[in-house]
Automatic annotation (TrEMBL):
The keyword Flavoprotein belongs to this UniProt entry's keyword annotation: yes
Source taxon at top rank: Bacteria
A single GO cellular-component term on record: membrane
Source species taxonomy: Bacteria, Pseudomonadati, Pseudomonadota, Gammaproteobacteria, Cellvibrionales
One of the Pfam families matching this protein, by short name: FMN_red
Keywords: Flavoprotein, FMN
UniProt protein name: Flavodoxin family protein
Entry-linked PANTHER family: FLAVODOXIN-RELATED PROTEIN WRBA-RELATED, FLAVOPROTEIN-LIKE PROTEIN YCP4-RELATED
Organism: Microbulbifer okhotskensis
Length: 189
């Protein structure tokens, strides 16, 4: 069974909804299992993320999808604490050659969400991971997915009360399925 970890931080529920949609897409790929892993404030002590069980789950995954809300043009402080805690895996190259992808949600359509995606990409590169972009061309999908037009990762805008737009949910599911499909192909090599 190919496992894909979807690790995320959510404040209003929008990132949680995207993470669940990504995991749904993973689970639609035969032989693959999506696992959502939430970064919570209770796991941060004196600014340092500490959740060994979550990290062990990610160690066992063939791919990791990273999700954070965009705060001030970058990942949330809670997500950054998780990234910093992964430094042991960086030194040991524990996540080398795992697939990675990312998603974010911002408060408006020009909320500098690409800064968050770039932060996630750089983190993945430092970890030696292989980044999976969105393969849906903007404005050319008959279903209307990837409505933000970002190829690097899923960029969305929060709807009221922590919701997400249905097309963003469909794009998140597609991204999860794409990562799972590629991880499955690689595992058969």
């Amino acid at each position: 069974m190919v496992q894909v970890g979807v690790v995320y931080h959510s404040i209003s529920g929008s990132c949680k909804a995207l993470a669940e949609a990504v995991a749904e897409g993973v689970n639609n790929e035969p032989g693959c299992k999506g696992i959502t892993l939430v970064i919570e404030g209770k796991d941060i002590h004196q600014g340092r993320f500490d959740n060994p069980a979550l990290m062990t789950h990610l160690d066992q995954c063939e791919a990791v999808v990273l999700g954070s809300p965009t705060f001030m043009g970058a990942v949330s402080a809670q997500f950054k604490a998780f990234m910093d805690a992964a430094s042991e895996r960086y030194s040991n190259r524990s996540w080398l050659d795992k697939l990675a992808a990312g998603f974010t949600v911002g408060g408006n359509s020009s909320g500098d969400q690409l800064g968050t995606i770039r932060t996630l990409q750089i983190f993945a590169a430092q970890m030696g991971m292989l980044w999976v972009p969105i393969d849906i061309l903007p404005s050319q999908d008959p279903k209307g997915r990837n409505r933000s037009g970002c190829q690097s990762g899923l960029v969305t805008v929060a709807e009221s009360a922590g919701g997400i737009h249905e097309l963003d949910r469909l794009t998140a599911s597609h991204l999860g399925n794409r990562v799972a499909h590629l991880a499955s192909r690689i595992s058969r090599l």
